[in-house]
Amino acid sequence: MSITLEQAEKLSEAAKAKAKAINVPMNIAIVDEGANLVSFHRMDNAWLGSVDISIKKAKTARFFDMNTGEIGKLSQPGGPLYNIEHSNGGLITFPGGVVLKDGSGKIIGAIGVSGGSVEQDHEVASAGAEVL
Amino acid sequence: MSITLEQAEKLSEAAKAKAKAINVPMNIAIVDEGANLVSFHRMDNAWLGSVDISIKKAKTARFFDMNTGEIGKLSQPGGPLYNIEHSNGGLITFPGGVVLKDGSGKIIGAIGVSGGSVEQDHEVASAGAEVL
Amino acid sequence: MSITLEQAEKLSEAAKAKAKAINVPMNIAIVDEGANLVSFHRMDNAWLGSVDISIKKAKTARFFDMNTGEIGKLSQPGGPLYNIEHSNGGLITFPGGVVLKDGSGKIIGAIGVSGGSVEQDHEVASAGAEVL
Amino acid sequence: MSITLEQAEKLSEAAKAKAKAINVPMNIAIVDEGANLVSFHRMDNAWLGSVDISIKKAKTARFFDMNTGEIGKLSQPGGPLYNIEHSNGGLITFPGGVVLKDGSGKIIGAIGVSGGSVEQDHEVASAGAEVL
């Protein structure tokens, strides 16, 4: 089973609520099991450059079934995945992309958030992911 | 003024309602005055290839301030805009992209729909656009 | 000798004056002998999608040392240059790109205009080219 | 309100004057509120590779509403935004891109300059931005 649009909308609502609570307008993207876009929302006045980044974070998390920040630790100079960002039309490997799991632990998609600091992005993405 | 996320959500709801009424799952994208993505929704089981097409339709409509089908009439072999689709990283010029105007007639964005026949795509996009 | 920025500004002024005279806001791009961008102007309210088209028209004209409309006659289905638009990161082969020649007939660059009908685009580009 | 072409021309003139004063030919690009190109000027003998860089600097500054050098501090190896440059079709994150604000502090676009050292690029971009 992949994430449905109805589920994605609930996650996005939770992420938006968290973004409002911390007062940072965010871009919120959700992809399904196949890493294909399911939903996207840009809150008013959120960074324009974060449209692409939030989508790339969601895809990157699902591409490798781990949160984006984990990949970023491995892609540094001298690291085992140095410059992996050049693949797949461009990856984003800093925090803000979080894998989405159903009740049984199966990965059914990913959420990517961009618009604030990477800590804020991760916090808002996690608030969405926790709905599942 | 550009379209807000709240407005985009209302338009998307109306488009989804029309898509359900005609029983065709659709991809629905909305861009703002600057042709930047504001929202995207892929209904369950909608074509994966239509993610990109719906976004390109919305952008194309705003790029030239006319519905995509109008451009397609001009871009045929022998037509004045033959192969205009090679510009801007790829345009989609068949119906399904509709400009969004506020009450005063000012263009504030565009909606792009893909997932059915071009007639159905245009019908669903128009159902969204009429909310404004 | 290649076109200078000072010359390009004079051509752009002439093109803008013609665009105002026919009341169509235009995008105006000028490239040099090496097909590299020298100047670009988007008049207020000109089509956003014509930024890229005007630049591609100028490059296309200099790439083949002929006005873009001439190439478009050859790139039609069944024609000798069918779908040449796929080369060079995307060509635009309908009218609006005009080669720029110095007094001795040597090509020193090209001007590309987009924002109206192809006839209007060509008229405005020609008004710029005639300054030389 | 977004920046007008008339405003962009005044900013470009100021930037060119500064470039001449420090004797470095520059590429000068200005984008509007939607990160779409408004104007571009390449001074005679300015680097060809800086055409794209100046445009990317202007877009990058508007994409994240901060000067490009600020982003570059964060995108270094080990930094929170490492390799953000892979997004949005390529960002430039060293100095030379400066946000443009109107009298009320609202961001209405950005200017990008490339052709000299990054210090010179930033100096020339700032000379343009100060006109507003």
UniProtKB/TrEMBL annotation, chains A, B, C, D:
SUPFAM superfamilies: GlcG-like. It comes from the Bacteria. Pfam families: HbpS-like. PANTHER family: PROTEIN GLCG, SLR1406 PROTEIN. This is Heme-binding protein.
